[in-house]
Amino acid sequence: MQPAKPEDLIQGGLLDGMCIVCTGLIRLCSNLNFFSGDFEIRRLLIDRLHCIADDHDHAKAMIDRWLETSPAAPKVFDFMYMAQVTRKREALGSGCDVCHGEPWVLGPNDIVRCGCTYGQALAELDRDRLGRRREGAPLPLVN
Length: 143
What we know:
- This protein is mainly alpha-helical.
- Helices cover 49% and strands 3% of the residues.
- The protein has one domain (6-135).
- The chain has a two-stranded antiparallel sheet with strand order 1-2.
- Helix 1 crosses helix 2, helix 1 (20-27) packs parallel to helix 3 and helix 2 runs parallel beside helix 4.
- Residues 135-143 have low confidence and may be disordered.
């Protein structure tokens, strides 16, 4: 996602500086069982949804999938699963005979991304997400 413009951020209040789109998507989950009323947890959910999703359309697909399949509110961990199952496969490739389109393969000491085009596209997304978190700057917010 591209860096935010000031008009695309929530100004003032407890969610100051958060993405309007991702805030609205998390709000859709507020009627689900076990949704936390803690504002820090909400901020974390918004932040992680925004960081993990490829773009706002992907974030919407993730939340839509969750709302269709679960009566309980999502946890941060759930976003990784939702990102994987809703990611547009054709944009990343289809995998090879080693990975068969799976996101991880067994390496010598750990699980790793495959060396094929698909695995390396996932590795690039990983580096991008990690870079966003290390910068310490506000998350990029709008397509």
